[in-house]
Every structure is written in structure tokens, then in C-alpha cells.
Amino acid sequence: MRIIFHIFTLLVIASNSTSAADKAVHGLEIANEADARYSGFGDSRATMKMVLISKAGDQDVRELRVDTLEGKGKDNGDKSLIVFDLPRDVRGTALLTWSYKQQDDDQWLYLPALRRVKTITSNNKSGPFMGSEFSFEDMSPQEVEKYTYKYLRDEACGELTCFVYERFPVDENSGYTKQVVWMDNQEYRVQKIDFYDRKKTLMKTLSVSGYALYSNRFWRAAKMEMVNHETGKRTELHWNDYQFGNGFADADFTRNSLQRAR
Amino acid sequence: MRAIAVFLLCLGLMTDTFGWEVRGAASLEERYFPHESTVVSWQWNSSLALTAEVLHDWNDRNDLFTFVPYVRLDEHDSERTQVDIRELSWVHVEPNWESRVGVRKVFWGVTEGRHLVDIVNQTDFVDQIDEEEKFGQPMINFSTVTDWGIFDVYALIGFRERTFPGEEGRPRLPIPIDADASVYESAAEDHRIDFAARWQLYLGDWQIAISHFSGTSRDPLFVSNVTAELAAVLLTTGAFPATFEPKLTPLYNVIDQTGLELQYLYDGWLLKLEAISRSGQKDRYHAADVGFEYTQSGILGTSLDVGWILEYLWESREPIDASPFDQDWLFGARLALNDAAGSELLLGLLYDPHTEEKVFNLESSRRLNNEIRVSLEARFYADTGTAPQAKVIILGNLKNEPFAKPLSVYSTEDLVQATITYYF
Fold this sequence. Notes:
Largest sheet of chain A: 13 strands, antiparallel
CATH topology of chain B: Porin
Shape of chain B: globular
Number of strands of chain A: 15
Number of domains of chain A: 1
Number of strands of chain B: 21
CATH architecture of chain B: Beta Barrel
Order of helices and strands of chain A: HEEEEEEHEEEEEEEEEH
Distance between the termini of chain B: 20 Å
Largest interface: A-B, 37 and 46 residues
Oligomer: heterodimer
CATH superfamily of chain B: Porin
CATH class of chain B: Mainly Beta
CATH architecture of chain A: Clam
């Protein structure tokens, strides 16, 4: 009897651990599928209007242009070039990012007044991007390898059905301990993300809406809204003028091209 | 005023007629010098600056045109009042190289304390006190991006003299500098064609750049107006003739300067080195600026970033020839609030442990709205002694006696500056 009991508990433990591994595998499968559907766009160009909304409802507007070149090979992530148009005092300032799947991204900032390119250190990931509720980390390309995964459940999200899974940043400099992602099971598009800070408390929620299909293949959102539960501040990103097939090459994402991005 | 009217008219024509893009900034600046000068009578100064960027591109952005006119009106200093072309250039881009022709600005370097390696453009010494305001340099530049880094070669056509405060200008030396009587080593004077080249490579977390410049030095030596006969009299009696008015004249030698830049990135650390070796101004000498910047992000759970800067500045020149920053420490803190107003604060202390001289620097700014930014800057000198009289400077130089306090010449020139800038 005792022996049987032991075998039974062992079986329970074993099946639990298989189940945890299964959840990790299933989470990764979802992330990989989402990545597969996202990839193949080659390059894109878009403009973005960022609206910073204080707790009292005061608004600040930023405008920027974003060029992206899809990463090739197994190590290289996307490259992006962001040029600021508003506020006017930072107009012409440009940020070049080379992202990698397994290591810290390289980032350079071009300061037009001094004609100077400055290297940005990689530990400011959690810092706010242009005073917004989006951090540098939120704005950088999302590579599958930057997280580990755990599938939770399927549940309804609006008119869609979503996979709900957790992802855990690999990088110890990340401002987050955990993110909970709602992704629809039709087109594998992020619908919502809950961000948990280093104290493991819910810090921010991102809601993504207005998805439109480009080139019959690529879904891009028109609106992203980040709400900070700790401060009551919000930031809206409004994406416009998406263009694909611009013919960008690596030569368009060098420190030389950064200096003439204007 | 007429200059500004013409300037605005030209801009209007550009945009209306040709549909080019124009960006600009107008700033109003007020300066206050807490100490009375030994030379000029004023302590408050107002100044107005207007700049624009006229941009045009064609051929799918593979050809870019840039025109940056600049106007400054200054209440007291006629040398600071100027109409200038900061940039007028055409950039042509091919897949792996680009050519840049015209008047341009180029920045080289990685450190914060001194920009030793940065040599292409002349400094506008009177416009801003931080020596970061530069004149445009006429040039032909080819740049190519390869797997072994970025190579740049430059032909620098012609030369711009450094500006110095005029008779009524501040901050100033106790002795006037006669910039109109500049002396050149080259027979071509300011028409000499200089050459420069730079190679820069990013290798993982390392950035390395090696550069060479051959041409007329951007920073001059100074010669006094003491004749050989007068020098003999002065060295024996020390008495100046009643009519003698001491002054200095800039001397522009032809130099060769090789520069090295190194930067290593590790987590929040940026380790930096700039070093130069220069020949042509008296004996060959070396100078370096080495240190680090460490950035702490999200201090105490806020969005505050603090960057800590520590650098050591060094020169091999004899004290009589060296700059005041020949054995100095730079301590700095760069604060970014990361708020909607983009508030920033930079505090710096330059400290010479041998002379105990200190220079305190403050730069702070924030946005009022999307078009207006305000800034407050200050520079204070401490433990620099009292400002020597012009004749004492001349005598010391004749006797080859370096100052115990090289910064004493600036000890009355503490400065507070407030600026409001409107961007359009």
C-alpha cells in the first residue's frame, strides 16, 4: 500500500513536470509561429505619432519616422533607424539600432547640433523612450530568443480567441520579470500585454488595436496604448503611412546613413 | 537688423519658390558676469541668434543639399556679432561610398572633457563658452563603408581663423588678442589646402578610430608685440615704455597630428580614450584624455538616469606652452529626468591637483512646449588667484616663467547664461 502510494505521488510529480515542460514548449511554439508569420516583410517604413497623456489629461505630442530592415541569418535581428520630427528641439536627432537574437543590441544616437554620433550603453533598456510610458526595451525589435515562455490557457479576447502565455526576459537588465501576452489564434497578433516590474507587480498594460493587412500578408497595428498602473499616465502610439518593399539594404543602416537621416 | 530681414526674405523665397524644407531656431540669450572685469565696464549682455537649415533631396534621397546660415547680434561684442554660413553642402550617396562637397561640420572623438582629436572645423570661440560651436569648413570628403570599417579622406580647402572676444567682449583674457593681424607659417596663409584621413572600426563592444591631419593648426600659438630691443630692456629693467600697449597675435603653424580614439562598451560602462601626437608647434608633444562614463538607469525606482563621468586630462608640453588642462581631473554627472519636458542637468568639475584650480560647469535645460526650450548654464572659477595684468603676462612669458595659476587669467570671468530658444 505504502509503495503504491509512493508510485502514485511520483507519477503525479512526473506528470506535473511534463506538463510544465509542455507549457514551455507550447509557449515557444506560439512565439515561433508568430515570428514566422511576422517575418518575410523585408523592410518597412512608417510614421508614428506618440501622445503622452498625464494623469490630469494633459497631452504632449511627439512625431517620428521609423525605417526597419528585417534581419537575415540566425544571429542578426532587425535594424531600425528612427528620426525625430517633434518636439522641434530634437528634430533631426536619429537613433540607429542593430538588434541581435542572442546578445545586447547596438545603439547609436546622432546629435545634429554637434554632428556627433554617440554610443548608447545597453543598461538603459528599462528607461523611458522620449519621456513616454514605453521603455527603450518596449520599442526595440522583439526577437523570439529574448524570452523563455510558458503557455497558460486559451480564452476569449473581444470577438477573437486568444492564446494567453507568459514570457520571461532572458536579459538581466530588463525592467521586467514577466510579461503576460494575449495573442489571437487566427493571425497570431499581439492584442494585449501585461508587464510585471522587478518587484513582480503589475506595472503596465499594452493594448493593441486597429490591425490592417499589408501586401496581403503582414498585419500591422494602427494604435498601441500603454497604461502605467503605478502613475496613471498613458501613452498612445498612432502608426501611419506603412510602406513595404522600399528596397532598403544594410548600407541604409550604417553610421554614415545615420548622419544624413535628418 | 538688415541682415535678418535679408535672411528671412531668402528663406521665404526658398520655401515658396522651390518647395524645399526649412527648419530653424531663434534664441534670445542673457549673460551675467558676477565680477567686474579689469578691462571692460559691463556685466550684463543680451544677444540674439537666428539659424536655419534649408534642406533638399532628390534622386531618391541619394543626393542631399544642406544650407545652414547663421546670424548673431550681440549687445557689446562686435566680434560676436556675425553673419555666417555654417554649412552649404551637397552629399552624393552610392551603395558603398559617399561624397560630401562644400562647407560642412565634422565631429571626431569620444571623450567629454576635451575634444583633442576633433580637428577638422575651427572653433567659434566667442559664440559659446563650451568650445563646441564650430565654423563650417570647405571640403571635399569621400567616405566608404567596408567590412574593415569606415574610411574617410578629406581635402580641406582654405582655413577659418579662430574668433576671439573683441575690445568690448567677455569672457576675455586680461590682454587683447589682435585677431586681424594673424600670422601664418604657410606662405599660402588661409588659402592652404589641408589633408585629413580617418579610419574607424566597430568590433563587438570596441570602437577604434585612427586619424591624421596635416595642415594649418586650428588652435594658434600667440606672439606678443614686444620687439627684440624692448625685450632686452624689459628683461633688465622690467619697466614698460609709457606708450606701450601689450597685445597678442595668433600664430598659425602648419602641423601634423595623429589621433587615436578608443571606446569600450560594457553594460552601463563606456571606457574612453582620446590621444594625440602633434608636431609643428615648437617640439612634438602628446596629449590624452582617458576615463569612463557609467550610466545608472532608473534611479530609486524613478525614471531618472544618472551618468557619472570621470576623466583624466594630460599633456606632455612644458607648463609654459601647455594648456591649463594638462594634468586635470574631470568629474561629471549627467542627469536625465526622462520626463515629458526632457529635463536635463549636467554638472562638471575640472580640478588640477597641482595648482588646486577648479572650474565648475553647469548646463541644464527643459522644454516649455514642442517649440520652445529654455536653458541655464554657468561656469565658475575657484582657487585661480587674481587676474594678472597684461604687462605681468608679457614679462612672465619673456622670462619663460609659467604661471603658478594658469587659469588666473579667467578669474574675473565667472558667467551665468540663460537662453530661450524657439524652434520653427
